[in-house]
Amino acid sequence: MKIFFSRLYLLAFLALTAGFIFLIWNLTFGEILEEYHQRKKATEIVKDREQKKKKREEITFQKVILEGDETVKHYLGYRILQEKRIEGHFHHIDFDVGPDKINYCIECHGDIPHDKVKGIRAFGNMHASFIACQTCHIRLEGVAKSGIFKWYDRTTGEIVASPVRAGVQPGTYKAKILPFETIDGEPQRIDTQDKIDFAREYEKNEQSLTEVQKSKAKKIIHKQVSKKPYTCADCHQREAPLLSFEDLGYPKHRIDTIVSTEVIGMIKNYTQLYIPRLLDPGFGQHQSKQ
Amino acid sequence: MLTYQTRRSILLLFLLLFGMAFVSAANSESADVGNCLLCHKYPGLSRVDEEGRFRLFYVNEDIFDKSVHTRVKCEDCHTDIKKIPHDTPKKVDCFVQCHIVEPSSEQKFSHKEVAKFLAASVHGEVAKQGNPKKHPEDLPSCKDCHDNPLYRPLSFFKRVRPGISETAMGRCRVCHKKDDFIFRFYNHVTTRLHKIRNPKNIAEVCARCHDDPELVKRHDLSTRAAYSYGETFHGKAAHFLDERIPDCLDCHVKRGESVHQMLSHNDPQSITYKTNKAKICANIECHPKASPKLADYKIHAEFNFEQGTAQYYFKIFFIALTGGVLLPMMGIMFLDVLRRLLPNAGLNRKK
Amino acid sequence: METHFKIKVKNGKKYFFRFTVNQRFQHILLAILVIVLVLTGMPLKFPQAFWAHQIYSVFGGIRIAPFVHKTAGTMLVLLFVYHLIYLVYTFYQGQVIPLKKKNELSIGKILKTLISHPIVPNLKDIKDILNLLKYLLFLTNKRPEGAVFTWKEKFDYWGPFWGIAIMGSTGLLMWNKELFTKFLPGELINFALIAHSDEALLAALFLFIWHFYNVHFSTSVFPMDTVFITGYLSEKMMVEEHYEYYKEIMTASGYPHEILPPHGVRKPESEHGAVRDNPVKLTDLPRI
After folding, report:
1. What is the pLDDT of residue A76?
2. Residue C190 domain flag
């Protein structure tokens, strides 16, 4: 037994010594070599920079705000404000909503998908940060319509109590609103595991599929998606809003703001300016071709 | 084209609106007179613009209220936003006049003075001799160095924990009635008694350009400035959050002058010019007993080949000595452990 | 002067005198100071490392740790000065006075005794290293027969000796830069910084890997060799490391018949492993 342990000890120490050799090499001759190569390489940096420019797919809210490359810590004395740096951004950010691990639309469309319709694109993205895509982009009709909406946790996916009722700052909820659809008389959440799995599998294997397969799969994924999504005024109204704010935990003063004349008036202005074009099919493609 | 009359009436209307906003601002605690936060309090308010840049339109009210601009209304900077909903606004011009009245001159406040300093500095777009510089696009504008400056109240006379001294606030309350005013004034004065950003943050700001190898190469700079600062005791102390250690601004600007008026070390006017620089080190707050020779210390030394062969080879000697001594020893150690692991594997079994 | 028996027998085991109380005290002080200096210095050399902030804050962060470093450094320089005086004094007492008594005092003679002093590196060390390599590469089963100070110990002595000279002088220079630059060029501080920082790394790695392996982690001594506390070395280690000196001292102390065979060589009478390691003899029983 003693011999076994001393053997084990020696073996571990042998590995440790090899580690030391590696460490010392890196600290000494390795460093000299590295510096020499760096000096030779200095001219090639310019090329690299061009490639660094990010592609559209790579810019998602989550990547920039939660996983950004550069973190800044402001040492204020009484606290340390830590946030991701966005180049050229003046105002401070300081919030953390956590990534949405459940929503599968994000895999292809990103989490700031609204970028075509000028004027309301930022609003669309703002609402997307606490409302699941399906809420607006799927119009449940007839028997399928349950009228039920609930909050789900962004990380675990579970249905949770209303964060609004808990008094969280507006828009910084770690949860999102999701519609329920009625199947066989029972209301169930619209993002079933089958749908999530199918979409994720498609995203993974997209490269290897033929065009026909791709278009078929896309049709299945988007089967329920409506051509005409719900728009602002469907919720921002007093009479019969799509979402039942009380059920979602909104206190009276918040509901009053959501359906206030200020907001509704603003929506009217926007609608007159932009919505007609939004509802013109083909508008998006037309613009991106230009 | 608008006629002169319509333009004038629009202008008058705005002035009226502005005046009303001003009056109401006088009673309001927050700068958000236009209710911009109705939408802009939502973190998700964002999009990707036509150039593929991520744009965030969120304003964190809590943090904004602790910034030096807390009394400035949104539309004082975002001047072209006159109504809700608004179109994509223009970029903010930091040199615009805002409604704040500067108490000593009783003039409307503006950062215009800074523009003059900046233009005359090493970062200005026109060289001293009057000819424009190469690559003006690389030169910094306000936002390359500044984000919204946050109050950092003087805290070292507090014993228990840093931050605002309630005792001092209490003394203010003896005469001044409005807490909002006391809070702001206290912060305004005490923040200015020391650095608004700690030395580490300042070095990080400079590093964004001055450590960028491409920019260093293109502008023919002799060093990656923040990197070599980090190799000195000053830089290391800054890294460990020492508040009293000199940062870039302390040495590159003459004491008492605007930090925006930074000059090249080739400019005889500059504090970093070879005949002036002894004064930096010998500053009464730093090394008052230093002789001029101390300033010959190469503060931005990277010990690399380009900067000087003597230091480079001196460094190589020590590194080689370290490797040359330790690696053979590690070899012996390795073999020694191996020999103990396999005590009976000797080739020569005879005694 | 203290007097020491070269060999002490306790519980039947022989222990061999190595270090005086004075030397042991110097060593322990050196060890403590070096550990403090490394802990307060390395975070400055590698400020980006994940451990830098933690270690530094143990010593009070940037406000206090530099003061701790300078204090420990000053004490180490003082210890070094004390050691130099001690060296000269013991050399004078031990070598020069006997020469005087013999009326053979001359510069040449002093130099000769200096060079032949057991702590000074000599040709035998090179031979020992080569023989050790032969042993380690499995070419022989015989370890080199070490003298009173082996080449490892000479390294352990002269390494820190050179190290303290370099670290102390450059440290003092950087600390008192205002004073020194009154007559020295400012660029010298750059060189001092390189020397101080790189030599520190060499010293720290040397001590905490090489020296610690030899006196703590090697299976011969694990968990530690107590010689630095007691001043006496066990017979096993004596045989393993200083066989030449061992034979000499055993003979001189009147134990010529009890000399153990060299390390790794079995005793002729213990072929079946019956009484291999500690043959119990009557003489080994406690003599009370």
Report:
1. 83
2. yes
